[in-house]
Amino acid sequence: MKFVCEREKLASALNFLNGVAPKRSNLEVQQNIYLVAASGTLVLSARNSEIAAAIELPLSDLSGDGNALINAEKIARAVASEKSDRLEFTIDEQKATAQTSRSKFEFALANDRFAEVPKIDRQQTVYQIAVADLRDAVNRVKNCVGNESSGRIVFSGICLNITGDGTQSRIDFVASDGKRMAIVNKPINAVAKGKENKGTEIQVVVPPRGLIDLLKLCDSEGRGSEGNSKATEGGAPAEAVIDLQLNDNELLAETSSGLRPSGAVFVARLLEGAYPNYRKVIPSEENITLVASRAELLDGLRLVGSFCPDGETPRVELNAANDKLVLSAESSIAQGRTEMAVKVTGGEMKMLYNCHYLLDALTSMSGEEVTFSINNAEKPMKTVEGDFTCVLTPLSQR
Fold this sequence. Notes:
Blueprint: E1 2-6, H1 7-20, E2 32-38, E3 41-47, E4 51-58, E5 60-63, E6 66-71, H2 72-81, E7 86-91, E8 95-99, E9 104-108, E10 126-130, H3 131-141, E11 158-164, E12 170-176, E13 180-187, E14 189-191, E15 200-206, H4 208-223, E16 241-246, E17 250-255, E18 263-269, E19 288-293, H5 294-305, E20 315-321, E21 324-330, E22 335-341, E23 343-345, E24 349-354, H6 355-363, E25 369-374, E26 381-385, E27 388-392
Antiparallel strand pairs: 1-5, 1-7, 2-3, 2-6, 3-4, 4-18, 7-8, 8-9, 10-14, 10-16, 11-12, 11-15, 12-13, 13-27, 16-17, 17-18, 19-23, 19-25, 20-21, 20-24, 21-22, 25-26, 26-27
Helix pairs in contact: 1-2, 1-4, 3-4, 5-6
């Protein structure tokens, strides 16, 4: 089997897939990238215990179909280091050879059997979401993801909760570590095939790496696309969307409009277990509200946060009354306080919060002002900005 491939696109695909393939694994086959050449295309695949991905590239001068299993790190480094525009590959039963006018690389072939990466079943419901919306949601909730020590294994993932029908569907991205929770709500288009999809609610929990690596794949595809589309952060075009499908144990994704000509498939293993009813955690009655400058509040928290004791929970006291907010923190060797003008309605606020959690919430927002609302000092505090909601549990008084 012989074929010629554009080196830049191949290098981009191999770079991403090398990040999927583990450097060490009990299953040696997972340390390789699987190449399949047929019908004028090259499909490259990699997998680990949590995710799998396949990227399709166009070929020229393909002679004979075939496949090969090659060490991921070796081939990725070789193709990345070569500067020629085109690479000619020759693959026989024992080795793969990549050649340019000045370089030649040979790779021994692994003999293991590689499980192909599954594709979306187009006869079942497929969801479409904008890459920009997916990135915005993941970036704003990922800091709140907990771990297995949070009490439930599902807290170590991001919950995706889809409600609605067709173009009216919405998806909640939810993350919580048991002490705080972030929710971002985005539109998602559902295309039902084979059966009706009216009035349903679907919920799954995805490990954070699954969604973060999916975004990396979209960015990799975007950089390889043709055209003059304005790119968003990371490389994906502004109009790019991806297709999603959910089953009992996997999230499947395929790159769609805005990310061509390359094609890519991505699969992430889902976490087992039901996510708690997060809507019940959102305070529904708030007697007291505080409106402050987001920039001033960020500066104040960073200032007094430096006085929190090292190695302990960074406790910051918020004391708001008469349209003034006092922030204070102390350790055994120092204490600091600062104050700012705010607007307080409904009564006085005096609470203790984790300084890092407050900073995470504020940096996930973009408005000039931020509004916090609370029932009393022992109840969770809520802040909402557009499609973003954050709930923070206060620290116990001492």
